[in-house]
Every structure is written in C-alpha cells, then in structure tokens.
Design goal:
- The structure is a homodimer of 130-residue chains.
- With 130 residues, chain A is of the alpha+beta class.
- Chain A is 18% helix and 30% strand.
- Chain A is built from two helices and seven strands, in the order E-E-H-E-E-E-E-E-H.
- In chain A, the strands form two sheets. The first copy, chain A, has a four-stranded mixed beta sheet. Chain A has a two-stranded antiparallel sheet with strand order 3-4.
- In chain A, a hairpin with a 5-residue loop joins strand 1 and strand 2.
- The radius of gyration of chain A is 20 Å and the shape is elongated.
Chain lengths: 130, 130
C-alpha cells in the first residue's frame, strides 16, 4: 500500500466504481476512505464508507450479496478507483442487478445514427466492388 | 429534464462514469454540474465541470477526442451518472485508452481461484455422468 498514493478528497473519500468482471456491467458507485480501501485489498471483498451513516460497511454483510474483488485499478489523477468484482446476487439494494437501472430519455437523435446514410452507401459500394 | 431529480452534492456536482458503449470498458470518471448535464443531454457530447479550473469543459474540445453520448443512466440514489459513449481516440489525457490503466497488485490470491479444486472436481464428475 505504501506505493499507492491515492488522492482522498477533503472528506477523506475516493469514489469507487464497481464493475462486474465477467459482463462488464457497471454495478454501482460508492465511496471508500483509506481504511475501507485497505480492508478491500486485504479481504478481497468490497468495503465502503457510508457518508450518511458515517461508518464502514462491507457490501453484502447483511444482504449476502457480496462482491469478490478480482481486479482493482486507479485512474490517471489517482482520485478514482475501479473495482472489478464477481457479484453474488443483485448489487442494488432495490433488488435490481445494477444501481444504474434507470435511463434518461435522450430523444430521437440518440437512437438514429446520423451517419446511417453514409454507412449504407459504403456498404452498397463495398458489395459492388468485391 | 423536469422529471430528472439528480441529487447534486454541496458543491453542485455529481460524479459521472463514462463507459465505452461498444466494449463496456470504463474510460473515466469526471464531474458534472447541472449546466454541464443539460449541455450533455442537449448536444449528445459529454460536458463536465472542472473543479480545479472552475469551468465547464467539453471532452475533446481541444484534443478532438470527443465522446458521443449514446445512453445516459442514473443510479438508485440519483447521485451518480453512467454515460455510455462512442469514444473518438483515447479517453485519457495521458494517451491511454482508459484513465484506469494502472492496476493495484492484490497478491497471489486474486489470480488463484480458491474454488478451483471444487470446480475441477465438478467438471470431472460432470464428464463422468454425461
């Protein structure tokens, strides 16, 4: 841990993204302080710091939906973590697999690829030529 | 946007995880305020708020490495965002594809599955029985 120089914020916290190591699905975002980060590395289970309850908690300690840590990354600024886990059961307390189960409607444009005409043209051209 | 009730923190920010919509790779974590979130939705490009520079910035405005927003999710507590994008070029200012390019050594245990013996046993048993 000595070589790890994570930049904790003024509250002593760092955001940790939790991702399913098998599917790549982003499961949740929670915060770690230095103690919970150390416990995560030692136990290979995710430990976080609850800002509302002001206490450490181990994910799944009560629900049984533990996260087994397989890989742990930190970002270029050393102020964010990415934890790749094997998730037991749903990650979200609502019972949803991921906490990110609600999508913002971005309107029609997001579903229609503006380059679709170009792509169809290229595809036709490609078939003609080959 | 009226129906979106994102919980911005005391600094008016919300963390936004950016994920490659095609590969599932987590590219970066940055912060949005309400204005940058609105601009992200309107323009379908990612806009963030720089805490150090205290200004809005559009990802790729100078580097050209834009992020085209395809899907936008918010979490159960409405205090974190997940943005699925098509990334042009590398996402990280270091030139790395993802900002999470450095891994913490979790020791031997992380690479050796403690249930490997059990799995081999089950595999042998399965082959015998079928």
């Amino acid at each position: 841990m000595e070589s790890l120089n994570i930049q904790f914020d003024e509250q002593g916290l760092v955001p940790a993204i939790v991702q399913d190591v098998r599917t790549g699905e982003v499961l949740m975002l929670a915060y770690m302080n230095e103690t919970s980060l150390n416990k995560t590395i030692e136990t290979k289970r995710t430990w976080f710091y609850s800002r509302s309850r002001e206490e450490l908690w181990q994910k799944g300690a009560t629900s049984g939906n533990e996260q087994h840590v397989k890989q742990l990354y930190y970002d270029c600024d050393q102020d964010a973590l990415l934890v790749k886990v094997e998730q037991t059961g749903p990650a979200c307390h609502t019972g949803e697999k991921s906490c990110f189960y609600r999508e913002v409607d971005l309107g029609e444009e997001s579903t229609v690829d503006p380059q679709i005409v170009e792509r169809v043209f290229e595809s036709i051209q490609d078939r003609r030529d080959h």
